[in-house]
Specification:
The structure is a single chain. The protein is mainly α. The protein has one domain. It has 17 helices and two strands. α2 packs antiparallel against α3 (36-54), α4 (63-83) runs antiparallel to α15 (350-378) and α6 runs parallel beside α17. The chain is globular, with a radius of gyration of 22 Å.
Length: 433
């Protein structure tokens, strides 16, 4: 099997770049694909494209990319282990917290590591879809296809942001002006939660800036920079505090990389012009609503701190193997601190939620995968030159924006955002050769 995999090299058909953009666009347009029907449509598109790549292979697969396949297989195996029925006395030893979770009816003879195997099964199905997106980009894309995908994502990000801005100023209480949303939602664009819109668009914005700098024609430089300005303006208008802060973090990372790479001075002029135009737009539309959102943030911050405290308390009873991927809502109840309002389905911190659901073993496997991806994508000095350096700077900034935002939200539990991040990581690996 190792010999077989090491001799594969994949070439996607000509329509691959457009299809990859569609894979990111469709779930975003379907309200973030948070509903089962929307995720089913998005997953079907991913499977079709992934299988198209598998059946059009030739050549070889590099050792680093082969390692990513094996690590991914280990992650899937670990999640299957979380659902495996084991003698209840063994589970009780491994999972002290099981005693706090009531089981209706007579005590079972077997239990799984996961406190709710069905939720872990659903989460595993989604995770496999995300892996398919990642490997479709990482294994089947060449440099030209990557650049086309980035341009397509930039166009879509601009169109999505423009739609969101128009909808914002013509708001009638319904998404797309026709669709209702659940009580308590704070919609922006096609997303029920403005934070998730901001998280999605923030990942594309640095890529558009990268395409702007990498373009050889002045008109294209201006066009893709303008796309980035509109996306940034939409994030500001969304009034997402996490979105604005993560946008600043991503832009700072982008600029820092250019400085480290001793990029030509004219590039800083492009970024300076981008900043001036953005500040002008924000000033024109009014900055007071955003300032009001930040000044009122102490209320939600206090609630998040309580939720994080409860999450860590639960983790102490499920330290090694976790409660099972996707089971936060089922496991958190007995540990919910007094004073925490309503029922929390997520920890509003993707990293703490992963720690609880995956345990130390799951976090370790996940960290190995992420580090392997980052080393493959960014660990080679020869890749940091000319146009490739701009694209890599865009990838790094995208990853930083969603990582910062995920410290206080659950962006990566929204399928559209997880799919987009998987695609970006895969494209970054594809640029490594």
């Amino acid at each position: 099997m190792r010999l077989l995999l090491s001799n594969l090299k994949f070439h996607m058909p000509d329509y691959a770049a457009a299809a990859m953009v569609a894979i990111a666009a469709v779930p975003a347009l379907l309200f973030g694909a948070v509903e089962y029907w929307a995720m089913a449509i998005s997953g079907a598109l991913v499977i079709v494209l992934f299988m198209s790549g598998v059946f059009s292979f030739s050549g070889n697969l590099s050792g680093k990319k082969l390692a990513l396949v094996y690590i991914s297989a280990a992650l899937v195996a670990y999640l299957l282990f979380q659902m495996l029925p084991l003698p209840v006395y063994i589970v009780s030893l491994l999972q002290p917290g099981m005693a706090y979770l009531a089981v209706a009816g007579p005590a079972p003879a077997f239990r799984s590591i996961s406190v709710y195997p069905f939720e872990t099964e659903v989460a595993l199905a989604r995770f496999i879809i995300y892996l398919m997106v990642f490997f479709t980009a990482a294994l089947f894309m060449d440099a030209l296809a990557v650049y086309r995908v980035l341009k397509g994502l930039s166009v879509f990000g601009f169109a999505l942001a423009l739609f969101a801005i128009v909808q914002h100023f013509t708001w009638n209480g319904r998404i797309y002006w026709v669709a209702s949303y659940p009580p308590g939602g704070s919609p922006f664009g096609p997303f029920v939660d403005r934070n998730h819109f901001a998280g999605f668009v923030n990942m594309i914005m640095p890529l558009s800036l990268a395409v702007s700098l990498a373009s050889r024609e002045l008109a294209k430089k201006a066009l893709y920079a303008f796309f980035a300005v509109v996306m940034a303006l939409a994030v500001v208008l969304s009034l997402s505090r996490g979105g604005v802060l993560s946008f600043i973090a991503g832009l700072a990372a982008f600029c820092a990389i250019l400085i480290i790479q001793n990029s030509p001075k004219w590039q800083y002029m492009v970024l300076a012009l981008f900043s001036v135009i953005l500040v002008s737009f924000v000033t024109y539309t009014g900055v007071s609503p955003l300032l009001s959102r930040f000044s009122a943030g102490h209320l939600t911050h206090g609630q998040r701190l309580l939720a994080w405290k409860g999450t860590l308390a639960a983790f102490r009873d499920f330290p090694v193997f976790g409660t099972g991927l996707g089971t936060f809502a089922s496991a958190f109840g007995p540990y919910q601190p007094a004073g925490l309002q309503k029922i929390w389905e997520h920890a509003h911190n993707d990293f703490l939620e992963l720690l609880l659901e995956g345990g130390l073993a799951g976090v370790l496997l996940g960290a190995v995968f992420v580090l392997a991806v980052l080393k493959t994508a960014f660990g080679q000095r020869r890749g940091w030159h000319r146009r490739a350096a701009y694209l890599k700077a865009g990838f790094v900034a995208s990853i930083i924006t969603i990582s910062v935002h995920s410290l206080a939200d659950f962006n990566l539990h929204v399928p559209s955002n997880a799919i987009l991040l998987s695609l970006i990581l895969g494209l970054a690996v594809a640029t490594s050769g």
